[in-house]
Fold this protein.
Amino acid sequence: MPLTTPKRAVVLGGGWTGMLTAHVLSRHLADVTVVERDILPDGPEHRKGQPQARHVHILWSSGATIADGFLPGTIDRLLAAGARRIGFQRDLVTLTASGWQYRFPSTAFAIMCTRPLLDWTVRQAILADGRIRVRQGTEVVELAGGKERVTGVLVRDVASGGAPELIEADLVVDATGRASRLGPWLAALGLPSVEQDVVDAGIGYATRMFKAPDGAGGGFPPVNVAADHLMRQPGRFGVVYPQEGGRWLVTLTATRGASLPTHEDEFNGFAKTLRHPIVSDLMGVAEPIGSIFQSRSGANRRLYPERMPQWPEGLLIIGDSLAAFNPIYGHGMSAAARGAEALDRQLSGGGFAEGGTRQVQRALSEVVDDPWVMAGLKDIQFVNCRNHSTDPRLNGPDTAERLRFSDFVSKKSIRSPKVCELVTDVLALRATQAAMGSTSFLSLLNSDAGFPELTEPPFRPGELEMVGLKPSRVGAKGVLADGE
Ligand SMILES: Cc1cc2nc3c(=O)[nH]c(=O)nc-3n(C[C@H](O)[C@H](O)[C@H](O)COP(=O)(O)OP(=O)(O)OC[C@H]3O[C@@H](n4cnc5c(N)ncnc54)[C@H](O)[C@@H]3O)c2cc1C
């Protein structure tokens, strides 16, 4: 079958996904345009079209490695700008639903910094050679073409609100995120809606920036306190994540039924209701330096374009437009990077086969499957979660058994380094979920008793003193050196 490579592409949305996608396309096509509603800031700054950037973001090693592979030096540039490379689990203090996590030697990592720094660093590198045209302050109005083929996109200047203008293209990629208007755009072409699953635990985020205590330097570990879904109460989470510039970003998260703090008193009060006071204690030694920002965009939502009876040639969906996950698991940007990598693979193979956009879309849909089912399985356990999923793994006869297995693995993972290694690889999207069904992993689960349960947060000697807090009674218990 002859292969065709599109010649002109338009990427809708200039966020994380849109930029990586445009970069991949520009490796194979001469003519790539990005259409972005915002004016993109010339620095690591917030903008209207990316409200989630106020909240904590981590970039798992899978996503960071892909970005670094496309744009060599990205990780170094982020670190030079003050980002931290956090080894999982050595560099964190985490209370999971099953108890305190041992700080085992790290097998995966995440980049930790503000979201504007992440996006700006990557965007700068992508746009540096001027090969990609960016139409900023321009919004997508609708797709051009018909049921069989998309031939471009109609756009409008946001400031002047003038008449729509046609940008012709033989490939259009929707990367407009959770706000995507794909449904109405397809309807205007005479196509039905794409089937959609939603698993919505009613997640909300409230976030405030703090100046870290002077002694915290770059060495104080990120701290996580998770909810315990088995308590059958609305979930409450809290994290303190170091950011560039000697700052801590504190994010408090609630599932449906727990109210999200708006004012300072509520914010402090909420932190005290977490399963351990450490987040509240850390806030007590830090200085608030910003307002409290809220976000309610936490539902898991997945489209199934691969199930459409007819899919127009020349149209792809990627990133949050295709599948968005509960942010708690930190998978959105890495899943999107994996999507860009899958697209690169397809184009590197010599182009699209005839009628091939559909096949490429299938490859993009495959990479969102693991994060989708991981987030869904966790979230359906929260009280008041609305599970509108047709996925039998999340709503089928063996869902209860999957949940029991997942709880069993989680309990083992916090105390067994070998179990933890694979679980962390799966979380980092480096290994597939299927690996947890292997005979060797199952026998490890049953044979490895693991270390004794930790009863206190596993801070290293000196860590708490660094920020002026009293050391834990148990000192360095729970921190394991390599080879231990
Ligand atoms: C509170 C919160 C915390 C999160 N934490 C993490 C985390 O720790 N780790 C992680 O990996 N992910 C996290 N995520 C998810 C992550 O933010 C998203 O997965 C990621 O931003 C998706 O990027 P995107 O480019 O697909 O979409 P977006 O970031 O939404 O970008 C879409 C772009 O399209 C533009 N646009 C929209 N409509 C139009 C239009 N009609 N015309 C032109 N332009 C348009 C927008 O202005 C925007 O620039 C979090 C999400 C939230 C809500």
User: Anything to note?
Assistant: The first strand starts at residue 3 and ends at 4. The longest helix spans residues 332-348. The pocket of flavin-adenine dinucleotide is lined by residues 12-18, 35-38, 49-50, 52, 55-59, 139-140, 175-179, 181, 205, 295, 297, 319-320, 327, 330-334, 336 (CB under 6 Å).
